[in-house]
């Protein structure tokens, strides 16, 4: 038992162990970095409130939009903790985290995000379950830009942890399907709290869509041997959905500052109810086709 505990400790870079123990070790390291980073970031957010004259102890806090921005930019601290851990304990180059110098694939991710969202939203609108009400006349461009930066950080943080730290390192010791499955489970867990805020059916569809988009992120990471394409797709999916189209993002139904006025018509499986199009069956079909095409493409590449 002592040997096993020593092996799975996240505070060494040992790899001479059974694959299952290696997986456990990486999950423990994942949670250590993630929780430690969030703890420090939360402390920094509290300190920022007091520095700027807010007293959280009596409920005197920033508005929800500002708090969301603080959270997103606070993810810089979480990323820093991960990179510090990687340098101190893993002692490997950043390229093995998927942070290569070839950042050009990031733009492929952006184009893919635009393409997938355009198809999904267009089809849902054509079914009459979503409508376009024009352009906001009082759009706050600064807020949109700030959210753009926040989404870039938030998407990069999640991909660094799930596809960089987990997928990239696990595939050296376990089969690729297992590595993808582990990174997918760890990607889904933080989204669980909002998935089942409404009826069960939307939570189930939302889970399926999270699995599909995680597979797409993983296949992009494998294809380009870096996390940049996945980061671009992840960040700009969120940014376009929330700050451009003004639609719900992962169940967040607060008033948003966006460019276009898009809104759901009714509550059904076509528009995803309160969770938004990420719990839409239309999105499931589009993501499913995308994942299938990427799988076929990857298989052909392996055969040649």
Keywords, separated by commas or semicolons:
mainly alpha; two-stranded antiparallel sheet
Average pLDDT: 91
Could you tell me the number of beta strands?
2
- Order of neighbouring strands in the sheet with most strands: 1-2
Strand content: under 5%
Helix fraction by DSSP (H/I, runs of at least 4):
55-70%
Taking all Cα atoms into account, the compactness measure Rg is 20 Å
Measured distance between first and last alpha carbons? 45 Å
Element-level helix/strand string: HHHHEHHHHHEH
Any low-confidence stretches, pLDDT <50, length ≥5?
A: none
C-alpha geometry: globular
Largest sheet: 2 strands, antiparallel
Count of helical regions: 10
Structural class: mainly alpha
Describe what you observe in this structure.
By secondary structure, the protein is mainly alpha-helical. It contains ten helices and two strands. Helix 3 runs parallel beside helix 5 (141-170), helix 5 (141-170) crosses helix 8 and helix 8 runs parallel beside helix 10 (281-303).
In a nutshell, what does this entry contain?
By secondary structure, this protein is mainly α.
Task: Describe the secondary structure blueprint for this structure.
Elements: H1 2-8, H2 19-51, H3 64-90, H4 105-126, E1 130-135, H5 141-170, H6 176-188, H7 192-195, H8 200-224, H9 228-244, E2 260-264, H10 281-303
Antiparallel strand pairs: 1-2
Helix pairs in contact: 2-3, 2-5, 3-5, 4-9, 4-10, 5-6, 5-8, 5-9, 6-8, 8-9, 8-10
